[in-house]
Design a protein that fits this description.
With 203 residues, the chain is of the alpha/beta class. The protein has one domain: Rossmann fold, CATH 3.40.50.150. Strands 3-2-1-4-5-7-6 form a 7-stranded mixed β-sheet. The longest helix has 14 residues. It is globular, with a radius of gyration of 16 Å. Bound molecules: S-adenosylmethionine. S-adenosylmethionine binds next to helix 3.
Length: 203
Amino acid sequence: MTQSFWDQRYDTPGYLYGVEPSAFLVTQRHRLARGMDVLAVADGEGRNGVWLADQGMTVHAVDGSAVALRKALRLAQDRGVSLRTTHADLAVWDWPRAAYDAVVCVFLHLPPDIRPAVHQAMARAVRPGGVLIQEAFHPAQLCYGTGGPPVASMLYDQATLRADYEGLLALDLLEDGEVSLDNGDGHRGVGHTIRLVGGRPPV
Ligand SMILES: C[S@@+](CC[C@H](N)C(=O)[O-])C[C@H]1O[C@@H](n2cnc3c(N)ncnc32)[C@H](O)[C@@H]1O
């Protein structure tokens, strides 16, 4: 999907995925602490990055849509928190290495030609001892029609994520299943997601 696709989707007065954080991310709050440096990958309109900033973390949000990032900055301003943003295509971004205590990635779906390299860059961006938290749609989501790309190759099962992070992350959680989604008009209803938490081994 091109970034003009995303710019057009986000070019509305409201927030396509709402302004509340991912329910899964909220369940992982115990792994995060005030003062942590966090990279919010494909953060879109900022619902997750702004929530993390509101929890006292220093957040760097990166996304390919300039329209979304403008809305993310507006949401941060409305909430009285600061957010650093970078507009970049994740496939060619000069990824920082070992720079963040946590990397958070919610509902980023990439085609198989770029997905493994981006996932590996995400893992390498985590400092030793830090954590990567990811949520995405599973191929079973195709039966629900409540969000996500309608293309099986851009949806992730456990074997795919396990292979992508092999040798980079010690997986603490890898599960998929049915969930209730309430993320604005973009994702609403019952869906099937995959959820991963992996630690970057200390050196
Ligand atoms: C479904 S939205 C999720 C946004 C946000 N994480 C959320 O949960 O509200 C997917 C996001 O991925 C971004 N994205 C997709 N492919 C990208 C790429 N190659 N580089 C940068 N961003 C990309 C889009 O711009 C979009 O904001």
